[in-house]
Automatic annotation (TrEMBL):
Biased composition regions of type Pro residues, renumbered to the chain: 46-57
Organism: Aspergillus niger (strain ATCC MYA-4892 / CBS 513.88 / FGSC A1513)
Catalytic activity from the UniProt record: L-proline + a quinone = (S)-1-pyrroline-5-carboxylate + a quinol + H(+)
UniProt function note: Converts proline to delta-1-pyrroline-5-carboxylate.
Domain Proline dehydrogenase positions: 130-449
Name of this protein: Proline dehydrogenase
């Protein structure tokens, strides 16, 4: 219910931020996750949930410091200031100058760390990352997805310039080894019940070359490293998801991921699926690809792990293979979610057909899609209909009003578990990741404005002023 309608000033004064920082919100409280593990069993029916009154202010769960940083950042990202900030960040990413490089100038490093880095990244070492993971859990998130932001230092062009075959092989192997060690270290930080995020191109030029050739199996060292990583993931009681990338790599990524699902997702394993593959709904071929993999899973007796995204490479990829309009992508995304949750096989086909074991992760900042998925899941849970395990998640620093709204609605155990996806690494290692987040916010300006609006509303609520339009 709206008590009073107030407008947030175009330029919030330092006094306003000070007031927010030093007068903690009247309604401040943290949500503690009491959700059961009900989403982990296929063909499982969830007991009808107790009726629940949703909170009108999910962002009230954010600690004041985090809230203020989000308010500041999202306001900048939703304003004309984003463009010059983006140019400065781009300059820093490639800069070697004493003045602008965060690797060389400790002041620049500190400023970046305390601002954009803290907003989007989990920490530079294990202690910081563990603290962030703990913070997320205390906000009510079921868990986190953790990825190492460092990208391979070795580039295909650099390795190609090496004359000696032996030295070239050494450079390729070194990049794979750094990736293996970094990924296992990341797994160690994320703990039981959480997800590890893996990007195959992170393994360096050997992976990039094999993926762009469309090799159906990875080079032996990468294959061995992946098996070691998946064994460790399963032993720890975690899951791993394989990121989707540009289309030139995607055919091979799917083949490598299906091989891992075949090995680690056998239906008779209680923890299956351990491995999830990513499907990009903006691709016109995504439904056919999913059907093909569902069929394989059904025939060969393994569980499908599906992480569904819209797709992040629209600006650089074959445009004709991507849905013509945003509305088409949205429709396809929601259709895939609905078909999987209602166990239609093939997708959009008749419900009631034998359905393979599937786990779905709805990875999106789009509040409409996420809420639709959660409502459908809840409706089936309340009607005692068969369910597949479903989880939802957003990136750290993005769409907190969506994430926390879902957390609020998930505490009765009849809704999907909510996750935050975190990246860790030093300020320099995270620069490319940070740049991508800033660019993403620029291209999804409407959504960023929605988040900024929700944060301004929360600011007024904390000041006791009522809701904002
Ligand atoms: C936890 C998490 C993990 C992710 N992992 C991956 C990954 O592994 N690989 C990957 O590629 N992406 C990944 N993404 C990013 C994702 O693909 C989207 O780019 C991003 O989340 C924005 O889409 P959205 O669903 O959040 O919502 P929205 O903001 O509603 O959708 C924006 C998206 O719609 C699509 N779109 C925009 N304009 C058009 C148009 N004119 N025609 C057709 N389609 C259009 C694009 O995909 C664009 O990114 C991930 C996102 C999250 C939250």
């Amino acid at each position: 219910m709206r008590s009073k309608v107030l407008l947030w000033p175009k330029r919030p004064t330092p006094l306003l931020y000070y007031q927010l920082l030093h007068h903690p919100p009247v309604y401040y409280h943290a949500y503690y996750n009491t959700s059961s593990t009900s989403t982990t069993t296929t063909h499982h029916t969830v007991p009808p949930p107790a009726p629940k009154t949703p909170s009108p202010a999910p962002l009230s769960a954010l600690p004041t410091r985090t809230f203020l940083r989000s308010l500041l950042f999202t306001s900048v990202m939703a304003s004309p200031l984003l463009k010059p900030c983006l140019s400065l960040l781009k300059y820093m990413v490639d800069s070697n100058s004493l003045l602008f490089s965060p690797a060389k100038n400790p002041v620049v490093n500190y400023l970046l760390r305390r601002t954009i880095y803290d907003h989007f990244c989990a920490g530079i070492n294990e202690r910081e990352v563990r603290n962030t993971v703990q913070e997320m859990k205390s906000l009510g998130f079921k868990g986190v997805i953790l990825g190492y932001a460092r990208e391979s230092i070795a580039k295909v062009e650099d390795v190609d310039r090496i004359q000696s075959a032996e030295e070239k092989q050494e450079a390729l192997d070194r990049a794979v080894e750094e990736w293996r060690v970094g990924t296992l270290r990341t797994l160690g930080m994320c703990g039981r019940g959480n997800y590890l995020a893996v990007k195959f191109t992170g393994a360096g030029p050997a992976a990039v070359e094999a993926l762009s050739r469309g090799d159906r199996v990875p080079p032996p060292r990468i294959q061995e490293a992946m098996m070691e990583i998946c064994d460790a993931v399963a032993a720890q009681g975690s899951r791993v998801w394989i990121d989707a990338e540009q289309q030139i790599f995607q055919g091979a990524i799917d083949a490598w991921a299906v091989d891992l699902m075949r090995k680690y997702n056998r239906v008779n394993r209680a923890d299956a699926p351990v491995v999830l593959n990513t499907y990009q709904a903006y691709l016109k071929s995504s439904t056919a690809r999913l059907n093909e993999h569902l069929q394989l899973a059904q025939r060969e007796g393994w569980a499908m792990g599906v992480k569904l995204v819209r797709g992040a490479y629209i600006a650089h990829d074959h445009r004709d293979r991507i849905h013509d309009t945003k509305a088409d992508t949205d429709r396809n995304y929601d259709h895939i979610v609905e078909s999987l949750i209602t166990r239609q096989y093939p997708l959009g086909g008749e419900p009631g057909q034998p359905f393979p074991k599937v786990r779905l992760f709805v990875a999106s900042h789009n509040g409409v899609s996420v809420r639709k998925a959660c409502a459908l899941y809840r409706q089936r849970a309340q009607s005692g209909l068969p369910l597949i395990p479903v989880e939802v998640g957003q990136l750290q620093g993005m769409a907190d009003e969506v994430s926390l709204g879902m957390v609020e609605g998930s505490t009765d155990g009849a809704a999907p578990g909510v996750f935050k996806c975190l990246a860790w690494g030093s300020t320099e290692e995270c620069l490319h990741f940070l740049l991508r987040r800033a660019v993403e916010n620029q291209s999804a300006m409407e959504r960023t404005r929605d988040t900024a609006r929700a944060l301004r509303g929360e600011a007024w609520r904390r000041l006791g002023g009522g809701s904002v339009m």
